[in-house]
C-alpha cells in the first residue's frame, strides 16, 4: 500500500511538474512567486512543482474592436472643426515581452483598450471631420498607432501594436441626413470641377491644334512668297543682264510678250498692211447671227442667215 501511495503521489507530482508550451505561447517559471529570467519556448518543459509555478502568455496576434456599439455615446468624438463623429476602429497587437506583460501590469489588455480610445480622440480632435470621413483615414490610423505604442511603452505593458484599422466613421443618426447632403454637394462640386477641367482641356487642345495649323500655313505662305519674290528677282536680274547686252532686241521681245498677254483674250482682229500693222475694231456678224434666237413662227430648217 505504501508503494502504491508513493507511485500515485509521484505520478501526481510528475503530472504537475511537466508542462507544455503551445506554438503560439511563451511561458515564465516562477520560484516562490518570483519570475525567472529564462523564457520557456514552445515545447515540453519540467519545473519543480509546487515550489515553482508557470505563467503563460499567448503571443499570437489579437484584435480588439472599439466603438462598434451604436448606442454607446462613448464612441462619439469631437473633431477639430467642431463636428461630432462616431468612429469604430480595430487594434491589432501581440505580446512582445511576456515578462513585462505578465507581471508589470494587472490587466494590460484593458489598459490598451482605454489608451487606444484616448489616442483616437486626441487625433480626431485635431483633424477636420472630412479627414476621418474620407480624405486621410490612413494618416489618422498611423498617428493613432504611434501614440498608442508610445503610451503602452511608457506604461510597460509588453505589447506591440501591429496595425490600426478604421472600420467606420459616420455622423450621429440625428445629423446623418445633413452630413449626407454635404457629402453629395461636395461630390457634385468635384464632378463639376472635373467636367470643367475636361472641357477646358478639350478647348485648349483644339485651340492649340488650330494655332499650330495656322502657324504652319503662315510659315508655308511665307516660304512661298519669299521663294516667288526671289524667283521674280532672279528673273528680273536675268532679263536685265540680257537687256544690257542687247537693249533693242530685249525691248522688242518684252513688248511682244506684253502685247501677247494683253491681246490674248480680246475680241480684236489684226490686219496687216504694207506700211505695217494696224488694229481695227471687228464686228463678229457670224457670231451674232449664231447667237440670235430664231422667230417663233419661223418654219423648221430655216436659219437666221439672210
UniProtKB/TrEMBL annotation:
- For this entry, the protein name equals Protein HflK
UniProt keyword list = Hydrolase, Membrane, Protease, Transmembrane, Transmembrane helix
Which intervals hold domain Band? 16-183
Q: Which CDD domains match?
A: SPFH_HflK (cd03404)
Taken from the UniProt entry, a GO cellular component term is: membrane
| Chief location | membrane
Q: Which family does it belong to?
A: Belongs to the band 7/mec-2 family. HflK subfamily.
| Species, as recorded | Limoniibacter endophyticus
Cell location: Membrane
Asked if the record carries the keyword Ribosomal protein, the reply is: no
Task: Spell out the InterPro entries in the cross-references.
Answer: Band7/mec-2_domain, Band_7, Band_7/SPFH_dom_sf, HflK
What this protein is reported to do is described as: HflC and HflK could encode or regulate a protease.
Instruction: Give GO terms for biological process.
Output: proteolysis
Nucleus listed as a keyword: no
Task: Summarize the subunit comment.
Answer: HflC and HflK may interact to form a multimeric complex.
Please give the superkingdom of this protein's source: Bacteria
Gene Ontology MF terms in the entry: peptidase activity
Amino acid at each position: 500500500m505504501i508503494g502504491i501511495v508513493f507511485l500515485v503521489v509521484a505520478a501526481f507530482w510528475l503530472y504537475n511538474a511537466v508542462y507544455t508550451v503551445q506554438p503560439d505561447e511563451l511561458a515564465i517559471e516562477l520560484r516562490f512567486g518570483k519570475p525567472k529570467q529564462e523564457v520557456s519556448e514552445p515545447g515540453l518543459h519540467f519545473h519543480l512543482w509546487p515550489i515553482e509555478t508557470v505563467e503563460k502568455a499567448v503571443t499570437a496576434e489579437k484584435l480588439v474592436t472599439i466603438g462598434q456599439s451604436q448606442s454607446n455615446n462613448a464612441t462619439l468624438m469631437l473633431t477639430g472643426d467642431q463636428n461630432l463623429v462616431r468612429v469604430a476602429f480595430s487594434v491589432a497587437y501581440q505580446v512582445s515581452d511576456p515578462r513585462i506583460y505578465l507581471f508589470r501590469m494587472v490587466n494590460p489588455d484593458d489598459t490598451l483598450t482605454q489608451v487606444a480610445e484616448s489616442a483616437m480622440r486626441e487625433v480626431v480632435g485635431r483633424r477636420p471631420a472630412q479627414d476621418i470621413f474620407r480624405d486621410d483615414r490612413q494618416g489618422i490610423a498611423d498617428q493613432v498607432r504611434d501614440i498608442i505604442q508610445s503610451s503602452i511603452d511608457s506604461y510597460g505593458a509588453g505589447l506591440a501594436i501591429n496595425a490600426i484599422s478604421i472600420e467606420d466613421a459616420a455622423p450621429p443618426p440625428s445629423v446623418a441626413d445633413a452630413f449626407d447632403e454635404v457629402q453629395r454637394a461636395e461630390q457634385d462640386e468635384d464632378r463639376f470641377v472635373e467636367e470643367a477641367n475636361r472641357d477646358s482641356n478639350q478647348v485648349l487642345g483644339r485651340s492649340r491644334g488650330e494655332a499650330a495649323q495656322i502657324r504652319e500655313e503662315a510659315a508655308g505662305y511665307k516660304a512661298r512668297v519669299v521663294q516667288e519674290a526671289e524667283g521674280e528677282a532672279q528673273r528680273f536680274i536675268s532679263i536685265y543682264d540680257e537687256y544690257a547686252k542687247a537693249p533693242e532686241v530685249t525691248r522688242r521681245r518684252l513688248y511682244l510678250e506684253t502685247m501677247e498677254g494683253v491681246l490674248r483674250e480680246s475680241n480684236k482682229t489684226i490686219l496687216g498692211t504694207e506700211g505695217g500693222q494696224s488694229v481695227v475694231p471687228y464686228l463678229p456678224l457670224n457670231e451674232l447671227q449664231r447667237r440670235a434666237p430664231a422667230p417663233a413662227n419661223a418654219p423648221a430648217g430655216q436659219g437666221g442667215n439672210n
